[in-house]
Amino acid sequence: MHYAIIAAGQGSRLAQEGITLPKPLVRLGGETMIERLVNIFARNGATAISVIVNEEMPEVKTHLESLSPGVPLTVISRTTPGSMHSFYELSRTIDTEKFCLTTVDTVFRPNEFARFIEEFVADAGADGYMGVTTYIDDEKPLYVAVSPQEEITGFLDSPVEGVRFVSGGIYALKRNALEILSDCMASGLTRMRDFQRALVAAGLHLKAFQFEKIVDVDHAADIKVAKQLSGCEADRVDNSI
Predict the structure, then answer these.
(1) pLDDT averaged over the chain?
(2) Does this model's pTM top 0.90?
(3) Taking the alpha carbons of 205, 206, 209, 210 in that order, is the dihedral positive or negative?
(4) Rounded alpha-carbon distances, angstroms, from residue 37 to 17, 155, 184
């Protein structure tokens, strides 16, 4: 299983709130956020891990190069106009039939993630699994409509009666999704939610996997929640590498 991480954002909201480190280097307990993801992936059958980082934050690249996850780790240093462009850069490194992509600021319980990967790997019929949750902490959440069988039927910008889930930024997909990614790029799209809608429009069989809670770390207050979710002490924000 090839894993990929989008870590190329600016983290401007955290910086405005006094967090001086680049977002990937914010610590949750004894690990940086980026290190935590790399370690979780290494424990869940990773054959390779690829990460895209912002070229204006060389310290993130340096930190990644200091890690020893036990599997090949590729670091792409590039500033992109959006998350879908970052995904496209990462897609060139993916060499397995099934892969998993997350954003660096997505925090979840490792045991739930392990079940998510296990079910995706075992499901021969699905084109992809998307991590979803009923916990909403995002300013602009992407709502996920599902059938009674938990098959995804749509991605919505606004809440609709009967829609319980929001996207958690955890994507497990087969390689056929990369053809749709290329089409989205050719169409000038830039947002991951547009890519997700294109997957549904193309008829791919996507299943929603519910996590109890997924935290998207955009603000300083989110770090406290993320530390609690990770089982870490949350009494202060650690700005040190």
Answers:
(1) 90
(2) yes
(3) negative
(4) 24, 25, 27
User: What's the residue count for the chain?
Assistant: 241
Close Cβ partners of 187 (under 8 Å, ≥ 6 residues apart)? none
CB 223 within 8 A of CB 28: yes
Dihedral angle sign, alpha carbons of residues 35, 104, 127, 162? positive
DSSP result, 41-108: HHTTT-SEEEEEE-TT-HHHHHHHHT---SS-EEEEE---SSHHHHHHHHHTT--SSEEEEEETTEE-
CB 237 within 8 A of CB 20: no
CA dihedral 173, 174, 180, 185 (to 10 degrees): 60
Q: What is the pLDDT of residues 71-86, one digit of tens each?
A: 999 999 999 988 999 9
CA 79-81-82 angle, 5° bins: 105
Contact 99, 175 (CB under 8 A): yes
